[in-house]
Amino acid sequence: MDTQGQQLLSAREIDTKIHRLACQILENHPRDPFVLVGIHRRGVPLARRLAKFLETDRPDVRSGSLDITLYRDDPQNVDAVSVLGSSDIPFNLNGQLVVLVDDVLYTGRTIRAAMDALIDFGRPSKIELACLVDRGHRELPIQPDYCGIARVTGPGEYLRVLLREEDGQDGLFLVKSKSDSVTATAP
Amino acid sequence: MKPRKDLLDIESLSIEEIEHVLTNARPFKDLIRRSVKKVPPLRGRHVLTLFYEPSTRTRSSFEIAAKRLSADVTNFTVSTSSVVKGETIIDTIDTLQAMQVDYIIVRHGSSGVPNLIAKHSAASIINAGDGNHAHPTQGLLDAFTMKEVCGDIAGRRVVIVGDVLHSRVARSTSTILRKLGAQVGYFGPGPLIPDDRPADIRGFSSFEDVFDWKPDVIYLLRIQMERQRDQFFPSLHEYHRIYGVTEERLAIIRDRGIYIMHPGPVNRGVELVDSVMSYEKTLINLQVENGIATRMAVLHWLQPGTTVREMD
What we know:
The complex is a heterodimer of chains A (187) and B (312). Chain A is α/β, with parallel strands linked by helices. Helix content of chain A is 24%, strand content 26%. Chain A has four helices and eight strands, in the order E-H-E-H-E-E-H-E-E-E-H-E. Chain A has helices spanning 11-28, 43-54, 109-119, 164-167; strands spanning 6-9, 35-39, 62-66, 97-105, 126-134, 146-150, 157-162, 171-176. In chain A, helix 1 (11-28) crosses helix 2. Chain B has helices at 15-30, 57-68, 89-98, 113-120, 136-150, 168-179, 207-212, 236-243, 247-256, 284-301, and strands at 46-51, 72-77, 103-108, 124-130, 157-161, 183-187, 202-203, 217-220, 259-261. Chain B has a five-stranded parallel sheet with strand order 7-6-5-8-9, covered by helices on one side. In chain B, strands 2-1-3-4 form a four-stranded parallel sheet, with helices on both faces. In chain B, helix 3 crosses helix 4 and helix 5 packs across helix 10 (284-301). Chain B is globular. The two termini of chain B are 25 Å apart. Chains A and B meet through loops of A and helix 1 of B.
């Protein structure tokens, strides 16, 4: 399996996409306060970068992180004993407008789990969704409010997002697995 | 790391497994800060507590842990069950097996009973204390608590004081702490210190000796009144005088910043004086609090089997 694959976005383009997402969020909410919550793992640095772009207009925008392991509905992989991440939401969510942030939107199951997890922290007035890439193939009625790039993957294809905080570099790659029988790794 | 069906003792755990449970206990502990303290991973699973010995705190701790993971909990109360009618343990297990529970938490006065049940049951078995043998979740919660306050366990010195011989807590806690690199010592009445203690465990003849060793933690064991028929020491008063944390000893402990641990419930005036409970480095209540998070991590980690293993 090719680990790099075909480059869809360069580091510079990733930066532009995140900047655009920030502008769209701001455009949608010129006055309302909101908070950003990144989904582990790559949603967390993404949320932080969005906050950075928002700094001039919203110097007080806060971002938190959410681990959704305990809320997943996928069949338990018998060989994988899941290590939990920490959720860090250092503010009250009651009545807040929350923008959930993730790198890849795929089946929508991660977002379903994230909404359940979020609601256990408090009752947001509204939840919106921002993602860097939408690769299609939804299994739940969930759509992004803000989306960097849409690229529907074909059989045996999956997307690999690299972010410097996690991976040492930025980039979006389309990876083809050699055999179609290999199930694409969920993002 | 392979998933595991049962938790029966500390000896059989790898360092990796211990670290896994201790690492996952942290996010479970953080849940208490949320408005909803419950998470869904054990939704639809059934946990049964099967206690053949009285226990309030351990049983409640497991029950709260299971409920916070969204499991259903049934307490199998032994005194009102068929056990008084002479049903054997195996018969009871067959009955429970037919009820399709997923996890059974067992406490029994005889060593090895949880192992026996584990062999006969598809459910995950968690040993909540068997005879003088083991109390693995106590060991795990003690390690988690020490890690939380001391940072790293490796190189720390812990003296376990009291009736080590009859204590499953001493066995499990000393084993896990040594596995994680701590130095452990025993101090207690001669007949209550096992003759076959491992060579790396130090013995002490007085509290002065204990202090000279510069321990980080003094771990007091509960004097189990119900087990004192054999008169291992002259009187509780004598025990307190020699092995208890008195006001004078507390002054030294406070001065040196030594932590005090105790598995509870404490016998005030025996293992310790009242003022120990308000000493700022007494971790007794923290141990209770951490017990829930640690047991959640254990329940989340174990995976019930689908079939009963063949008997060997």
